[in-house]
Amino acid sequence: MNRIALFLISVFLLALPAAAQQKNISGIVTEPSGEPLIGATIMVKGTNTAAVTDIDGKFSIKAKPGDTLQVTYVGFQKQIIKVAASDNLTIVMQEEANTLDEMVVVGYGTMKKADLTGAVTNVSGSKLEDMRASSVSQSLQGSMPGIYVSRTSGMPGAEATIRVRGITSIGDSDPLVIVDGIPDSMESVNSADIESISVLKDAASASIYGARAAAGVILITTKKAKEGKAKVEYQGTVGFVQSTETPKPVGAIDYMNMYNELKWNDGGNQEGQEYSAYPKDYIDSYLANNAVNPDEYPITDWRELMTRKTAPTTKHDLKVSYGNKVVQTKVSLGYEYTEALYEGRDYQRLTARVNNNFKVTKWLQFGLDAYYRRGITHQPQTNPLAATLYMTPLDPAVNSNGTYAAGHNSSNPWASMNEGGRNNQWTDRLGAKLSVIITPFEGLSISGVWAPGMLFTRKKSYIKKVSYYTADNPDEPAGYASGFSLNKLTENRNLNTWGTKQLFINYNKTFAEDHRTDFMLGYEDYEASSNPLEAASDAMELSDYFYLTNANTNNLSVDGSETQNAYRSIFGRINYSYKGRYMAQFNARWDRSSRFARKYRTGFFPSASVGWVMSEESFLRDVDPRILTFLKLRGSYGTLGNERIGNYPYQASMTFSHPVMVDGSGKPVSVLTASQRDYNIPDITWETTHSWDVGLDATFLNSRLNLTFDWYWKKTKDMLLSIQLPIFMGYDNPKQNAGDMTTKGWDLQLGWRDNIGDFSYSVNFNLSDYRSVMGNMSGKQQESGGTITMEGVEYMSWYGFKSNGLYQNAEDLANSPVLNANTTVGDIKYLDVNGSEGLPDGAISAQYDRVVLGSSQPRLIYGAQIALGWKGFEMSAAFNGIGKQNKMLSRAMLYQRHAAGWTQFTGEVIGTSWSYYNTPEQNLAAKYPRLSDMTIDGSSGNNSQVSDFWMFNGGYFRCKNITLGYSFQPNITKKLKLNSLRVFASVSDPFSIDRYPQGWDPETTDTGSSYIARTWNFGVAVSF
């Protein structure tokens, strides 16, 4: 007995040290951003001991020093941690490089990326949110292959133009935008509310949207709440904007010398007339005289006066979410305010969104979502940016006594900007979505959606009389500023409403383990209406009461109309997969649209696609995944439609007017009249696009390197072309299905993502190219803005003369053909390429000597993104650009000629133009022709003709965004009672490399009426 007792005591004593070593290890598991991960699994390796993180990402598990903890979470890399002396751990998970299990939003559903058989590309909302762009469309620039985003303005509230895989039609080529399954607009979404954006690029993925999908489909998914305790998130930025480039007009002395030379050139360069506009002694003494008498010798820097170098901007986003097993709710609010680079223009936007999901039972759930957006634009009647280029430095803006001066021929944009009235706009957009999902049994779901929406736009434009004064009489107006001699008011109201009803049946089933099928059948009903109204009055009496009650009834006009359109659709999709190795998808949609006559309303748009995962085949299955991880081939064919051709083109339309006539008694009376405006084409029907796509998806090196490549071919048939009617018929030119177009192109995307210890990094690059060539156009051609659209050439190709330098001397001029009698030495010399008999005829004419100079479309469109992270520090950069695009140097980039007949120059032409003052060697190297109004003004001027003399490569490389940030570690945020805390700074559009003249951004308009904004932001993001 004593031995047994002694043995038990010994075992107990030996076990004490081991028991003493085991203890509770607690900690928190977070994302790299510091957000806690709910449901992460922590296991003591080699045992059955495990724990799961709670809604705060916290856990507690028993282990002893030396044990190994294994932490796992879907979508993140496994973490292996040795238990040390510390009993409080902070575990930061790194995202998994393999994205094949990522769910991608597709038409009316989602799919695993590995199962896609169509061409779909996507981007996460977090990448867009960091840019803090003023519009979602602008933030997409350079982010995805095959997506070309162009902008001509960085003004507050400006949107960008998006093209998916080039041009699909000579008509509407805007992609269809779907927000949470409902047709909508990008303007309805705050970038901070976006979970992801998918773009359906080929017919296999887009044909489920049928008649509206020919130009591609953009699917926006907003953020939803998840299960977990209440969470509050705030992100706010303050900053400022500035122009990326600023054209610089010449100063007073250079202006007078250059204007003298221009007038001398246009006067025939007669000896002794070199200073016909401004005498030499007047120029030489001008600066001194200005210092003594600025009213008689004014010098005005219009850009310095009317614009500013920076303007403030701020953006704030607040989100509140909560979720349990029954209810998940997310509420978000956003506010943005940005001013322009001149006084009086600003833009405000307020957004609100509520997303709710209710799981009533295991078989019943419903959702209720709503959003509201208000946009407000304030601006003066005069845009000063263009005025800074056409107003000369000798034009006075303000007299020395403080009154407004006459400017130039009574044109004073400084006065009209400040006193000439306002042009304001208010937009209110409201939408809702009610959805119900019934799941009778596993695999089957029946769902319905009702989504109404409205957009109300109000515009108020009023012009006030603006007086100007002389310097010696500040009390008596000398006249009114040009265009501002009357009080005018225009009020606009436009109510747009729409509604969508959808019904779906989804069924998925796996047979014999290897055969996976998905079926979807749907119905959609959509209707929309637009009700614009306008009232305007001229010559109003009161100058400070701009309401219609002050209208001048003798100068009052009203206008109003209503349009409606609707469509009904039945659509379906079948997916099949065998062992995840062979995949096929079939889509079809029947659309019926009110835009066509009853006989032509129905369109059928099918598609089919297949996929082959070659890496699952026996001949590749044994390849080391460190070399080849995944390889899939894809192919698709389908048809898409375009029904966006306007309303009622198959009907003859009437227009009404109220002309003033004289009745029998000789009194003037207003009489209602009606006339037919449009000639109807009853058999007008859909434009149809046939699309082929072959693609490859591959990942290498344990999914760290990924590659996607697609080649596509699209042919659009039955394009609408204008029919030229005789003028005496009195109708607008109608359109008819009479043309086709072929677009060929390819997309490439490469990505690398890895981490080395605590350092993580990723690099992504995309490149795409396309050519859109016109086919049959029924013998028609269209010219517009120096381009031509005709059979056999690229869409909107430049069309003009071939140049051969400049006429260098009288002998050169005498021995060369000329365009007209005003052409002289120093002008552009054109090639005589043809004549009436098919051979050069010794004359230059627009009829015979203009040729196709090249495409105007962008080529080799690219984008790149870099992201670096280390222990909470982060840096990201985005780039985009165009490899090549034929652009035309505009006259405005050199010198502007005002409609009233005067000219101002930019610094670009100083010392770069052909001149009689140059040596022959300097003129041979001259970049531009002689200074002249006569030859550069109007359609007949020699130097104003479209020609390859003015054509240059408008390709560019732009740094789109740079962001630096730091996320505080959980041990610090815990002390602050926060879930996460991040501070960051960013700059958008910091620089570009291009061939444009100094002062001109490669994306802005060539009139100088806008700018591309460089935006500096400083922000904080916090959640608790």
Q: In the CATH hierarchy, what is the class of the domain at 103-227?
A: Mainly Beta
Query: Count the strands?
Result: 55
**Proportion of residues in helical segments:** 10-25%
Structural category: mainly beta
Give the amount of beta strand, in percent: over 45%
Write down the overall geometry: globular
- What is the radius of gyration? 34 Å
Give the termini distance in whole angstroms. 63 Å
The biggest beta sheet is recorded as: 22 strands, antiparallel, barrel
Number of helices: 15
The CATH homology group name of the domain at 103-227: TonB-dependent receptor, plug domain
Whole-number mean pLDDT: 90
Low-confidence parts, pLDDT < 50 over ≥5 residues?
A: 3-20
According to CATH, what is the topology of the domain at 103-227?
Answer: Ferric Hydroxamate Uptake Protein, Chain A, domain 1
CATH architecture level-2 label of the domain at 103-227: Beta Complex
At a glance:
With 1024 residues, this protein is mainly beta.
Describe the SSE topology.
Elements: H1 2-21, E1 23-30, E2 41-44, E3 50-52, E4 58-63, E5 68-72, E6 79-82, E7 88-92, E8 103-106, E9 109-112, E10 120-124, H2 125-129, H3 136-139, E11 147-150, E12 161-164, E13 176-179, E14 182-183, E15 194-200, H4 203-206, E16 217-222, E17 228-243, H5 252-266, H6 280-284, H7 286-292, H8 302-306, E18 311-323, E19 327-339, E20 346-359, E21 364-378, H9 384-390, H10 413-419, E22 421-441, E23 444-463, E24 467-468, E25 479-480, E26 488-511, E27 515-537, E28 556-560, E29 563-578, E30 582-593, E31 602-613, H11 618-621, E32 628-642, E33 654-657, E34 660-662, E35 668-670, E36 673-676, E37 687-700, E38 705-722, E39 735-756, E40 759-774, E41 782-784, E42 787-789, E43 797-800, E44 803-806, H12 810-814, E45 828-830, H13 846-849, E46 851-855, E47 859-870, E48 873-884, E49 886-888, E50 895-897, E51 903-905, H14 920-924, E52 951-953, E53 956-967, H15 970-975, E54 980-994, E55 1013-1023
Parallel strand pairs: 1-7, 13-16
Antiparallel strand pairs: 1-4, 2-3, 2-5, 5-6, 8-9, 10-15, 11-12, 13-14, 15-16, 17-18, 17-55, 18-19, 19-20, 20-21, 21-22, 22-23, 23-26, 24-25, 26-27, 27-28, 27-29, 29-30, 30-31, 31-32, 32-37, 33-36, 34-35, 37-38, 38-39, 39-40, 40-47, 41-42, 42-43, 43-46, 44-45, 47-48, 48-53, 49-52, 50-51, 53-54, ...
